[in-house]
């Protein structure tokens, strides 16, 4: 698992975040997790790259909880069991892609 926290005072736009992933040769998808919504546990057979566009995302990765905020990026290795939910009072918008090794 590799986490990158956005440090600059100005966040990139949703389109810029998508371009960041596309520049790595990834096919980007958009996901909105409703406030209080939770996605079931999964263990995809590909690496998952995810950037939070807005809101907050609480990840449970193999029993370890991690909070991501707007601009934060995570790489979750293939076959890593994890779940996610929107944290706080607003939905969480993410850009994500699956990446083969």
Major sheet: size, sense and barrel closure?
Answer: 5 strands, antiparallel
Shape: globular
Q: What structural class should be given to the helix and strand makeup?
A: mainly beta
Secondary structure tally: strands: 9
> Which runs of at least 5 residues are low in confidence (pLDDT < 50)?
none
- Strand order in space, largest sheet: 1-7-4-9-2
Q: Kindly report the average pLDDT value.
A: 89
State the assembly state of the protein chains: single chain
Helix content: under 10%
Helix and strand element order: EHEEEEEEEE
Break the fold down into its secondary structure elements and pairings:
Layout: E1 2-4, H1 14-22, E2 29-33, E3 38-42, E4 47-54, E5 56-61, E6 64-69, E7 73-76, E8 82-87, E9 92-99
Antiparallel strand pairs: 1-7, 2-9, 3-8, 4-7, 4-9, 5-6, 5-8
What can you see in these coordinates?
This protein has 101 residues and is mainly beta. The protein has one helix and nine strands. It has one helix spanning 14-22; strands spanning 2-4, 29-33, 38-42, 47-54, 56-61, 64-69, 73-76, 82-87, 92-99. It has a five-stranded antiparallel β-sheet, with helices on one face. A hairpin with a 2-residue loop joins β5 (56-61) and β6. The longest helix has 9 residues, at 14-22. It is globular, with a radius of gyration of 13 Å. The two termini are 14 Å apart. The model has no long low-confidence stretch (mean pLDDT 89).
């Amino acid at each position: 698992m590799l986490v990158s926290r956005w440090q600059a005072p100005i966040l990139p736009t949703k389109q810029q975040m998508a371009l960041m992933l596309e520049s790595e040769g990834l096919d980007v998808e958009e996901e909105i997790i409703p406030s209080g919504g939770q996605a079931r546990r999964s263990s995809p057979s590909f690496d998952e790259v995810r950037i939070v566009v807005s809101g907050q995302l609480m990840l449970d990765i193999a029993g370890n909880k991690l909070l991501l905020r707007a601009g934060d990026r995570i790489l979750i290795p293939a076959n890593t069991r994890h779940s996610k939910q929107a944290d706080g009072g607003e939905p969480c918008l993410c850009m994500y892609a699956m990446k083969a090794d």
